[in-house]
Amino acid sequence: MTSESETLMSLGRSILERYAALPGAACGAITGSSAEGKADHYSDLDMTVYYDVLPSEVDLRQTREQVSDGVLVWSMGSYADGEFAEAFNISGVEVQVGHTLVSKWEAAIE
User: Fold this and answer.
1) Looking at the predicted structure, is the pLDDT value of residue 105 above 90?
2) DSSP conformation letters of the chain
């Protein structure tokens, strides 16, 4: 595992702690090059949080603001559809968090 992967994994765990505390959260996962141990100086941090029920948009925004400056770099998907992703920066690292319902994930793997 690269030292960059270790650093990003540590950052990811601290971020996922906050999201995991939200109502309806089932689990979270760090994915991508960080989880594979192949991250380098240019890598972003990829994560997905799975929910039985999505927390409120206010709770999600407040959590993003707690872990970062709160400014969205980009977003895609729709809260209303129960599946979306957003990116923000922390100390020069682009952090990408996917939010999805467990039911959406289960349907996708069927």
Assistant:
1) no
2) --HHHHHHHHHHHHHHHHHHTSTTEEEEEEEHHHHHT---TT--EEEEEEESSPPPHHHHHHHHHHHS----SEEEEEGGGTEEEEEEEETTEEEEEEEEEHHHHHHHH-
Instruction: Using alpha carbons, list the distances in angstroms from residue 83 to 15, 25, 97, 102.
Output: 19, 13, 11, 10
pLDDT digits (tens, 9 = 90+) for 28-65: 999 999 999 999 999 999 999 999 999 999 999 999 99
pTM for the model:
0.93
Give the CA distances from residue 27 to residues 51, 52, 68, 70, in Å, rounded to whole numbers and listed in that order.
7, 9, 21, 22
Query: Letter for the amino acid at 109?
Result: I
Residue 61, both tokens? 């925004």
Q: At 82, give phi and psi (nearest 5°).
A: 80, 20
